[in-house]
Amino acid sequence: MSESAKVESRKPTAGSSLPWPARIFVGLMITLAVLTFFDAAGRQESWQVWRFTLYLAMSVVASAMKVGLPGVRGNMSANVFFFMFSIVTLSSLETLTIGIFSAMAQTLWRPKSKPNWVRAGFNCSLIVLAIWMGWRVFHLGPVFGLTLPHYVRLFLMAAAYFVCNLMPVAIIVSLSEGRSLLTTCRETYFWTLGNYLLGAAVTAIFEAVEKSMGWEAIALIVPVLYMTYRVYSQYLGQVVAEKSQAEFERAQADAQRAHAEDVSALHLRTIEALALAIEAKDQTTHDHLQRVQIYCVELARLMKLSDAEIQALQAAALLHDIGKLAVPEHIISKPGKLTREEFEKMKIHPVVGAEILQHVQFPYPVEPIVRHHHERWDGTGYPAGLKGEDIPIGARILAAVDCLDALASDRQYRKALPLDDAMAEVVKMAGRNYDPQVVELLQANYREWEPMTRPSATPRTKLSTNIRVERGDSPATGFAASSDEPAAGRRETTEFLSSIGAARHEAQVLFELTQDMGSTLALDEMLSIVALRLKKLVPHDAFAVYLKKEAGLEPAFVAGDDFRIFSSLRIPLGQGLSGWVFSHQQPIVNGNPVMETSHLPAASTDSVLQSALCIPLGDGDDTMGVLGLYAAAKDSFTQDHLRILMMVGSKLSQSIQNSLVFRRAEDTSLTDYLTGLPNARSLFHHLEGALKTHPLVTVLVCDLDGFKSVNDQFGHQEGDVLLKQVAQALKACCRADDYVARMGGDEFVLVLPGMNATENPDKLDMIIGAVEAVGIERYGKVVVSLSIGVALAPEDGVEQDKLIAAGDRRMYKTKAKRKGQRALIEETEPKLPAPPKIESRPTDTASLASLHVIPGPGEERRLALLGTSNDLDAVAQRNDPTL
């Protein structure tokens, strides 16, 4: 069905009026509509009287077929068919007349309230403007020489009609009621777009009917529209009835909730307890509590637990890790193994969680589940060391499910396992860590439960953050090696490094490393030496230095295995191993290198490396980056390695800082500070390379003509602006391999490898024209031009000095010859106009690229160049004497 969404603007309550912005908008709409109507009347030549009369009558009848819109004081009618058909077959005035009569009929026929003439005028203006826009779009001529297909113009007409009809309505509603324009369009009107497009399709159908049966056949549409009107009326009535029923049911439910005092009190106490934990943050468990909750509840039902136990387990599944809010954030988010001290701090979280939940006063046993969900079936868990069936059944269920979910979720210290692999790991721990019966039921049903989902919440009071939990020997993954108790697998290495010979060797290598770091200021060279020397003290397979750039870390130097992966990384601060080390100012020993790429969505960064040692470079606000060493074997690094790396890190930070300062100074020494172009020093380096790699090189030595006058009249600041714009213009004339530099003052040099400029006068014309265009754009006339001296290699020599000197001599000969000619023009010309007070901007490169000649006022284009010694006279004769 396609209907006209002719919607009335919402009427204010009695005694009120439209706000001033809305009144002004209505007045503008009506005025515009009147002007549009008279414009169409002035273009009218003839009337199709009978067809016009039939369409008018049927449109007025269709306007009476209107239905109310839910949620808005307005209605819709079916007259859009006749508007669209009239647009296609009648003149603009005839169609506008039909639209005005239809709008009046729709407004005045059985209105819901007393007719408002301002509203009626507004509705008429909507129809007039929408029909006019639709008529103009449909009768649009060829676009870019192409005539649009008939059906395309039909649908464009429908879309234009839709926008012009409904957008003003949405604007007036927004101005009157203070609603968002976007919300008003989306919720109330946008859904009618399909009706208009369908109306365009119906119009196409009746065009075909008209061709075969005559225009009178359009009367057949009336019964169809009436049936459609009846169906829409019933549908919208049903929508209103369902909305009323839903509101009634919501009110009834609110009344029932008001009487459930015990549930309300429970919710309030829960919120109060959870609010106590607002200061802490748990960054690892928020996203996967829904799986834990669903699995726990389903397991409890299979094991035939009571309703109270199921409810307790459902709450505990959401709140079991709430005690982690009292654990320092750097421990929770650490992307590596915990030290013994860090694990002691982590073990308090079930105790703290139970204390928090005691304040909630749940009517079922939640607190014991939270307190004991880290107990193990064999009695080696914490905090109480309970064993077997002494562990609450809810805690046994939660422990197994929590382990499965943790293995199947991304953590800071490792990537997630596939769910099936995670389940296999849990099965291996049945009878040791977890209740075998619970694991058996979980294994049999986890695939069936996985599609089920649902989310969760957050809490605190005086928390036991300083207690020491006596039970619990070690975390499941083992301890990170500490300096006073090294891992057993590293004992021999530690003893060796503790010997006198190892100490002397270490001191010698560190001394040599320190000396080498100061031997060069080239960053890559210095870091390459460090990587080579450091490998003798801290064996590794990959070396990377990341430096801070904006909001992340980027590799400054990478060597060794997985070079491609590490050299392409862009690590956000706080993410990955290096991002965590930078943000927390703490090193990581034997972290998982896979976590360096944890922020990336793809799995194309699989690494063969399995352990990492990362330290921050710098201290506090002076931290500049991270040094990372990676190894293929697990747990490759010891605390001795960390000690050595920390010793190297302080010196390395200073060396990197010196190298960066040197690099900036080097860049500055090769760049002209004003124009940003390479300077003379850089030019000679580049020209030396170009002469070695290209058999033919053109050097253009250029000097600005008339630049002194600009400086004298407007000052050096204006001259600087002009120089910047000239530099941009010259760059725009260059090819990818060309090179432009500023020699100093108003002198520029262009290096054109592989081109003979004497054989390409158009290129020189374009360069001169580009420079003159700068003056035209800024002053309205040619105020500066360019004298060019051409030198060719190898004809004029193959040394930089000789080529520059040859070009310089020819440029000054050209300049001298033209100086007198320029003086004649300047005697008869008025002073230069003052430049506009605007910021300098780059010259439009697109226009310059196609520029060949740009004549000045009363001047003709000329070629201002002096060629090589072989064609000096011929080229000089081409100079325009009027310059």
Short description:
This protein has 883 residues and is an alpha+beta fold.
**Care to count the β-strands?**
13
- For the terminal residues, how far apart are their CA atoms? 74 Å
Low-confidence stretches: 1-16, 278-287, 454-461, 483-499, 823-832, 837-883
Instruction: List the strand order in the largest sheet.
Output: 5-4-3-8-7-6
Specify the biggest β-sheet: 6 strands, antiparallel
Q: Which shape, going by the Cα principal axes?
A: flat
Structural class: alpha+beta
Could you report the average pLDDT, rounded to the nearest whole number? Answer: 75
Helicity range: 40-55%
Oligomeric assembly? single chain
Task: Tell me what portion of residues adopts beta-strand conformation.
Answer: 5-15%
* Total number of helices: 32
Rg, please? Answer: 41 Å
How would you characterize the overall build of this protein?
With 883 residues, the chain is α+β, with helices and mostly antiparallel strands. 54% of the residues lie in helices and 9% in strands. The chain contains 32 helices and 13 strands. The strands form three sheets. A six-stranded antiparallel β-sheet has the order 5-4-3-8-7-6, sandwiched between helices. Helix 1 packs across helix 5 (117-138), helix 5 runs antiparallel to helix 6 (150-177) and helix 28 runs antiparallel to helix 29. It is flat and about 110 Å long. The chain starts with 19 loop residues before the first helix and ends in a 6-residue tail after the last helix. Residues 1-16, 278-287, 454-461, 483-499, 823-832 and 837-883 have low confidence and may be disordered.
